[in-house]
Amino acid sequence: MINKTIKTLSLSLCLVASSSQATILDFYDTIFNGQNQFTTAVTSAGSSVSSVTLNGLSGGNSWDLGDFTISTTDGFNESIYGASYDNSTGEMIGIDPRDNNDNGAGSGLTFTFDSAVNALGFEVGDWATCCFTSELFISFDGGAAIKVASATNANDNPATAAGGNAGDAFFVGAIDDSSQFTTVTFFGNGFGEFLTAGGTIMYSALDVGSVTVPEPSTIAILGLAMMGLSFSRRKA
User: Fold this and answer.
1) How far apart are CA 49 and CA 29, in angstroms?
2) CA 164 centroid distance within chain
3) Tens digit of pLDDT for each residue in 39-94?
4) Average of pLDDT values for 131-152?
5) Judging by DSSP bridges, how do beta strands 109-117 and 92-95 pair with one another?
6) Residue 235 and residue 219: Cα distance in Å, rounded?
7) Comparing C-alpha atoms, which of 185, 158, 194, 205 is closest to residue 31?
8) Cβ(79)–Cβ(151) under 8 Å?
9) Closest by Cα among 102, 110, 179, 166 to 138
10) What's the average model confidence in pLDDT over 108-136?
11) Domain residues of the chain, as ranges?
């Protein structure tokens, strides 16, 4: 109990110390929950969410959606799957992780925006069905990859864990308010683990440094410290 209290106190102090710095958030949940969490994070930062639901696409390697273009990162042609395939909200684009040398980054999807953004979310389907461990990443402008999901079995898919069918679509997303970016790449490293991405694409441009991480009050931190001292005295 004492160790647990100390760890919680240390985490709280870390959040306080870093509250003025740029924040990176990732999202990994069912479609309903994930979209709500993403929208809440964006609106709490003083911005609004734009969205496009994929429909009427044909197989290929590039799709112009107006504000942005989705393209296969390696230029390979990929198929389009209807919403019923993954129980998603819109059409999905196939992804086949191929290149072990680059951790799969080259065989993902790249979103290229006409105007810079720093928040992006969408749906992923047919994932966590084989080839474990399998991880999913989002990278802004070719920067450090943000790991948004990891699966070691089928129940690590949020939709499956919530009672859905194997491989049902779920929501992933990321916010990096350190800057604004024109390209965002999504990819997986589960080689042999075919997956899809798309559905409803949600995106936004937030002010730099505008995302805040909830943190306990100073009184709560002092309370944790006193609790630790109390348990220490009882054990003595």
Assistant:
1) 18
2) 20
3) 999 999 999 999 999 999 999 999 999 999 999 999 999 999 999 999 999 999 99
4) 96
5) unpaired
6) 25
7) 158
8) no
9) 110
10) 97
11) 1-19+214-236, 22-212
3-class SS string, the chain: CHHHHHHHHHHHHHHHHHCCCCCEEEEEECHHHHHHHHHHHHHHCCCCCEEEECCCCCCECEEECCCEEEEECCCCCECEECHHHHCCCCCEEEECCCCHHHCCHHHCEEEEEEEEECEEEEEEECCCCCCCCEEEEEEECCCCCEEEEEECCHHHCHHHHCCCCCCCCEEEEEEECCCCEEEEEEEECCCCCCEEEEEEEEEECCCCCCCCCCCCCHHHHHHHHHHHHHHHHHHC
CATH 2.40.50 fits 22-212, yes or no: no
**pLDDT per position as a tens digit, 4-36:** 223 223 232 233 334 346 799 999 999 999 999
pLDDT, tens only, 187-215: 999 999 999 999 999 999 999 999 987 55
Paired residues of 25 in beta bridges? 175
Q: Does the N-terminal peptide bond of residue 133 adopt cis geometry, omega within 30 degrees of 0?
A: yes
